Amino acid sequence: MFPTATLVNYLHLCHRKLWLHANHIRMEHTSEAVAEGKQLHEHAYPQRTERYREITLDGSVIDFYDPYNKVVHEMKKSDKMEHSHIAQVQFYLYLLQKNGVEGATGLIEYPKLRQTQQVSLTEEDVPMVEGWIRVIEQLVDSEKCPGRIAKSKCRSCSYFDFCYVEELPE
Amino acid sequence: MKQPKYLFNAGRMSRKDNTLKFTPVDEAGVEEQPRYLPIEQVGDLYVFGSLDANSALYNFLGQEGIAVHFFNYYEHYTGSFMPREYLLAGKMQVDQTKHYMTAKKRIEIARRFVEGAANNILRVLKYYNNRDKVKDLTEAIVSIERLLVSVPTTTDVPMLMGIEGNIRQTYYGCFDAIVGQTFCMDGRSKRPPQNELNALISFGNMLCYTACLSTIYHTQLNPTISFLHEPGARRYSLALDLSEVFKPILVDRLIFRMINKRQLQPSDFRSEVGGCVLKDAARKRFVQGFDEQLKETIKHRALGRSVSYRHLMKLECYKLQKHLLGVEEYRPFKAWW
Ligand code: SF4
User: Fold this and answer.
1) Radius of gyration of chain A from Cα atoms?
2) 8 Å CB contact between B202 and B190
3) Class of CATH domain A5-164
């Protein structure tokens, strides 16, 4: 299985999350966060839909691609800029390059923060992305579920209850 | 927020856009004012009266992931309409099956369910043992504790089931001491339950079973592969396994509380050839009591926040999943308050 952008994102967040997601152990879709993210995509910039295409490359979906300027737009509802977001967009740029689009760039928008983040993929970045792909493949193939990460980072994760529920001794 | 809906009256249900339309029909066949239930507020449907519905409705319910549980005139659970699974995970399915197929792995989980049930039974008995109105239960408590100790020595499921049967018998032997002034247990009778208390236990157990079933449905666990009960004992036998752990706390405690508060009295029952049944108003009260019990919250020590009893069931599924995936050993939920 070729990794998806979601897995690249999770690789930089938590290996257990990556493993669970890849094995289809996912939390119910009732989560408000999911609905919120969807709404963001539908309503944040309606006037732009003309310019953008949704494209699927090797199993990953780029929601907003501007083919004229060769720019990948990614919107994040989170109120924190994360390294994993950049990694995800770099992976999109890698996929574009792999499929014959040279010199594309990325722009991450954080509507809640009113900030944007430029992303590019240099020649040196390519082996790095390929390294991610190998690690993801290894993790996904592994029988064993990776361990938890530091609890403070887990609070907003949809797997929180799954990971932390246990019976404490009396 | 999705909530279970209970249909006590007979009537007709249909789809009206994104709403369920329920038209109650009285005994003379006259239609009453319809009620509308927005679909996003509907959890499971519990049908106690006769329900008239067409396949378009079931298609809609299936698409929305809403289960329907049916009870007959005698309050016996007759079956469920379960929507198609939507959370499938190949690895989870394979691991669950492996744990069933391997005798050693299976008994380890089965023992945990019995242990969980016994611990929660003990919690209930110890609570009532401290009440001055209740006859001394110490003897029963000691013998259940002794049976519990022998659980790890069981080498196969029938042997374990034997111990579980003894625990349950000792436990039911205490019911007269707890509510004997109002009701008499006179041994556990099912199919049909011979008296009021037995009717309550059977009915409550079925409510607990359906709640567990719905919870399992919203996970990647397969509800038909079980460990303590033989798969096929009932269609969704994993729900039987899971409900063992919760029945003492959710069902039995509720029964005792409602009887002792005189919310359920002998006059609330009707004796029929088919067994003993709750009258309409009392049935409603009991179902509401159970529903409120599921919504009640407790502070979860491992998660550090309040969770409802219904969510405790979900958490139990997570622990079981982690066991099956080899993440950590399953330890059953044990009431600690
Ligand atoms: S809760 Fe923490 S350990 Fe578990 S998947 Fe999420 S981030 Fe990883």
Assistant:
1) 17
2) yes
3) alpha beta
DSSP per-residue codes, A95-143:
HHHHTT--S-EEEEEETTTTEEEEE---TTHHHHHHHHHHHHHHHHH-S
The structure's pTM equals 0.91
CA B309/CA B314 separation, integer angstroms? 9
In this structure, the strands spanning A53-57 and A60-66 are antiparallel
Closest atom, ligand 1, to C-alpha of A149: 3
Q: How many structural domains are present in chain B?
A: 2
N-terminal to C-terminal alpha carbon distance within chain B? 27
Average pLDDT on B157-170 reads 94
- Does B213 reside within a domain? yes
- pLDDT on residue B155: 92
Whole-number pLDDT of residue A32: 45
Distance between start and end Cα atoms, chain A: 45
SS3 label, residue A78: coil
A163 lines ligand 1 (CB under 6 A): yes
| B158 shares its domain with B182 | yes
Are the beta carbons of A166 and B319 separated by less than 8 Å?
yes
Residue B126 belongs to some domain of the structure: yes
> Which residue range forms the structural domain that includes residue B47?
3-81
Residue predicted with more confidence, B72 or B247: B247
pLDDT digits (tens, 9 = 90+) for B219-264: 999 999 999 998 877 789 999 999 999 999 999 999 999 998 889 8
Same structural domain, B257 and B184: yes
Confidence label for B75 from pLDDT (cuts 50, 70 and 90): confident
Quickly tell me which residue has 């199919």 as its tokens.
B191
- Please judge whether A162 and B92 are an interchain contact, meaning their C-beta atoms are less than 8 angstroms apart: no
Claim to verify: residue B33 and residue B132 sit in the same structural domain: no
CA of A18 to the centre of ligand 1 (A): 9
Which residue of chain B comes nearest to A159, CA vs CA? B318
CB atoms within 10 A of CB B169: 12
The whole-angstrom separation of Cα B97 and Cα B92 is 9
What is the value of ipTM here, to two decimals?
Answer: 0.89
Assigned domain for B330 exists: no
Does residue B29 lie in a domain region?
Answer: yes
Pairing relation of β-strands B42-47 and B68-71? parallel
